Amino acid sequence: MDLYDEAGLYCAAFDWPVDREVDWLLRQVPGARRVLEPFCGNARHARVFVERGLEYWGVERSAAMLKRAADGAHIHLVQADAREFSIPGAKFDLAWCPINSIRHLLTDEDLASHLRTVRSHLSRDGVYVVESDLTRRDGWRTGPMVERGIWTMPQPDGTIIDCRWQPERDDLARRRVFERATIIQRRGTDVLREVSNVYEMRMLTFEDWRGLITRSGFTVSAVFEHRGSVHRPQVEFSVGLENGPDNYYFVLRPMGERVIR
Ligand SMILES: C[S@@+](CC[C@H](N)C(=O)[O-])C[C@H]1O[C@@H](n2cnc3c(N)ncnc32)[C@H](O)[C@@H]1O
Fold first, then answer.
1. pLDDT grade, residue 141 (50/70/90)?
2. For ligand 1, is residue 60 a contact (CB within 6 Å)?
3. Distance CA 78, CA 58 (A)
4. Residue 199's pLDDT is what?
């Protein structure tokens, strides 16, 4: 069973508060009115964006995830493939892709197609903020990256959700990393439910990512480190980000557009 089909378990595992993250994102685009989230899953950021006065659009291909998605006024959900989609007439001030989801796209062609599709939906001053990690050409095994991806979510019914999302093996020539996601719901030591999948994900080196960004008509206007859930210091866009201790937020701006200060 795929974790994205076991959407209830996914939603419980990824249910940490996102208010501060949304507020931080909105500081990157003052005055933003519309936000687009490709790979939106259950749209867990949607309500907070709407509470802040924005109109939210999520794009997701999994029906099971969309079934679990937040709904209500100002939330629009589109079942589509993130590689190429069209939301006619809508231009977005902010597009946003959290937690490495972009690495579900495996080839340069798919990634470039996705980036161009998002670019075509941005308003004149719009930005695309992508949260991802970067990996060294010789793999993820060196550096603090190895330790990441383990967390626990206590549930209101007294059960505990143990989560692990970690690289297991890689294919360096094809820039693939096979990541095992295991989510267990338990009461004490009794396991109630368990899902374990291996996802073939894209391994992005700094050079891969920089090339794709440029090729798709974007420029990097800033990078921030996702340190814990609160601290997001600005860092340089450099090869030194590879195999880092956490993810990074890449603020991408369409090339040739006016820069907001
Ligand atoms: C890690 S989840 C992230 C969900 C949500 N953004 C969040 O922060 O919890 C990645 C999502 O991307 C979706 N996905 C993967 N490949 C996709 C594609 N090509 N087009 C649209 N959605 C895709 C999956 O179904 C899954 O819901």
1. confident
2. yes
3. 6
4. 95
pLDDT band at 260 (very low <50, low <70, confident <90, very high): very low
Task: Judge if 233 and 128 occupy the same domain.
Answer: yes
* pLDDT tens track for 53-91: 999 999 999 999 999 998 899 999 999 999 999 999 889
Please work out whether the CB of residue 81 comes within 6 Å of at least one atom of ligand 1: yes
Q: Within this chain, do residues 181 and 240 fall inside the same structural domain, yes or no? A: no
Question: What is the Cα–Cα distance from 143 to 18, expressed in whole angstroms?
Answer: 27
Tell me, in angstroms, the distance from the centre of ligand 1 to residue 9's CA: 15
The domain in which residue 189 lies consists of 144-202
Atom 3 (ligand 1) nearest CA? 41
Measured distance CA(68)–CA(108) in Å, rounded: 31
CA angle 249, 163, 100 (to 5 degrees): 25
User: Is 104 touching ligand 1 by the criterion CB < 6 Å?
Assistant: yes
Please tell me whether the overall predicted TM-score, pTM, comes out greater than 0.85 for this model: yes
* CB 11 within 8 Å of CB 36: no
Residues 168, 70 share a domain = no
Say if ligand 1 is within 6 A of residue 58 CB: no
The number of C-alpha atoms within 13 Å of 258 and in the hemisphere containing its C-beta is: 7
Residue nearest (by alpha carbon) to ligand 1 atom 15: 104
46 and 109 inside one domain = yes
Together in a domain, 61 and 99: yes
Instruction: Calculate the average pLDDT of the chain.
Output: 92
Looking at the fold, whether 80 and 106 belong to one and the same domain comes out as yes
Ligand 1 atom at minimal distance to the Cα of residue 45: 8
